[in-house]
Sequence to fold (374 residues):
Amino acid sequence: MEHEDPRTRILDAAEELFYGQGIQAVGMDAVRTASGMTMRRLYQHFPSKNDLVEAYLLRRDGRWRNSLAAHVSGVGGPPRDQLLAVFDWLGLWFAEPGFRGCAFVNSFGELGATTPVVAAVARHHKEEFSGFLAGLTEAAGAPPATAAHLTLLAEGAITTAAVHGDPTAAADAKEAARLLLDTALAS
Amino acid sequence: MEHEDPRTRILDAAEELFYGQGIQAVGMDAVRTASGMTMRRLYQHFPSKNDLVEAYLLRRDGRWRNSLAAHVSGVGGPPRDQLLAVFDWLGLWFAEPGFRGCAFVNSFGELGATTPVVAAVARHHKEEFSGFLAGLTEAAGAPPATAAHLTLLAEGAITTAAVHGDPTAAADAKEAARLLLDTALAS
DNA sequence: CGCGAGCGAGAACGATCGTTCTCACTTCAG
DNA sequence: CTGAAGTGAGAACGATCGTTCTCGCTCGCG
Fold:
């Protein structure tokens, strides 16, 4: 596995460190050690820490949303069930070892005020996520307001699971989502 | 106003800087300048930056929850209305200039993994908040699960409002809360 | 073989951080 | 008056950060 392409090795190491400890708490030297790189090669692939941070966030955004979409389309069934499956997927995520909340919320809180690209990636990530839920909600025949409600539940579950270290927030959010969805579909 | 007690002046300056820019992005020298203190006096009141960070979070926690409780009890009415008033208060908060999300979520993401006291204060803040909602929910005659649902909505609204810079998340959350609450009370 | 280009390993650099120290000056008890 | 104690203002210190440079060494091409 250590023969993977260098960019991937660097990003793997950076992601684990940045996500697990916060971005500012991790120095480039720690990334170098964890990736088994030399400084020269590290800076050849990412000319500055900002570039590495941006690449970390962009890659994680893509992988996160792809994983969610794969899980949801994998369960199949009507759009209503797929929407609820989003919260099952969140529950799996929360239970992963090292789960520490949303990387984009964390990086936004830490660097959003001083590093515009971090704020932009975080905003983009959240817009894509709520857009994904909006698509499923529309397919289920529920009004757009319901999509906003489900987005809030999901975001709240992520935050709550992170701070409390307790994955049950996903089940709570799923139950609330089911109530809201069935109420919306009954009208 | 510059004759206030030094502790308050320091905490006021620290809060504005820490909340607005992130904790690690603010040096002690910036706190010293903003508070109009000398280094010696700054360290006399807070022997280390960690102490200042902890005091900042604790003071903000108390003020935040007192303000919420005052607003909610000020509107009066039945518990159901007070519960919904929580989301009005959130909307007012979101619209304040410089709003940048929950200080505790932000500090948790930035320092929670490396500074246990930060994680503990964030967890305490969230527990107190959900406990507050649980009390109102019980008074309204709704089951405990509803309190968890409303907590998730509020947390999600805070995150969404912060990342999007859009206070309308409070109104969305309030509508969802009303639906969930009325569903729970109808049974 | 000879040599220039690229590499790994890590030292070095300048900036910045949290924290402490210096020093001239004021204050006030005796 | 005298001197001990405390102050303001900011320099200084040691650590750490992001980034770059040095220095042997290797390797491929003439």
Notes: Chain A has two domains: 1-47, 54-186. Chain A touches chain B through 48 residues (CB under 8 Å). Residues 38-41 of chain A lie near DNA strand C (CB under 10 Å from a C1').
